[in-house]
């Protein structure tokens, strides 16, 4: 089940071992060490504005360089981090990294790049969440309007009053919010309309089905038109082909993220990617 490309592929933990409690404990101990031992790394995946073809921002995606197992993807270890509570310190570490890179990107000549960070259910419900995020952005002294937090419907709908209070507090500091994996949780946008959400990310399972299922087309069209009528922008995730891109462009989707343009990559590669695109843009003018 290993993925194709060596840059983003990760060896999957043996499925059979998943059920063993001892194995879970070992993974948890390994993960605790990983946070201390600099084995965790943030990869960055560009998000492209369809109208201008410019890189609007990047999503920060965790990777674990495990000394024996190689590169491990988040789908493998985030559930363990979530169960053990380790996701809380790990999640704050990702926000700190994002803030550092945000400052660096401006120094490198890419001001205005948005940095999106995923927040898990458990981290969102950490009692010290707003306070801790406030401290991180205050210490880093960054332009908070370039920070975006991605949350899923289930994280927000679990306790709507709590979500409303937290999102408003953080939104007042300048942070914006995206609704991640939209369409998979079956909640309706109308439930969320009182929350300060500026962006909807269409789950890649719908994009994947474009061209194969008329339903996927209808759903994507509906999500885009409803989001726009509620003044929210739309990002489509998992765009891999020209055909998908063309459909999304016709539907006035605002941004796309996917292997078609770029895979998640280490920071140094992202800097090269940004440089080569801005050179190409200069040559065109
Ligand atoms: P997500 O937030 O929905 O992130 C998008 C996922 O889609 C990423 O998987 C990305 O690599 C993948 N992707 C992007 N374009 C394509 C494409 O064209 N085709 C395909 N097949 N996949 C594409 P990744 O990096 O494995 O992350 C999986 C999930 O792990 C994320 O889903 C997010 O929910 C979670 N995650 C990642 N980093 C963090 C983190 O720092 N904190 C928390 N709490 N969760 C994280
Ligand atoms: Mg996300
Ligand atoms: Mg997503
Ligand atoms: Mg996802």
UniProtKB/TrEMBL annotation:
Lineage, broadest ranks: Bacteria, Pseudomonadati, Pseudomonadota, Gammaproteobacteria, Pseudomonadales
Coiled coil: none
Occurrences of domain EAL (ranges): 24-278
The protein, known as: cyclic-guanylate-specific phosphodiesterase
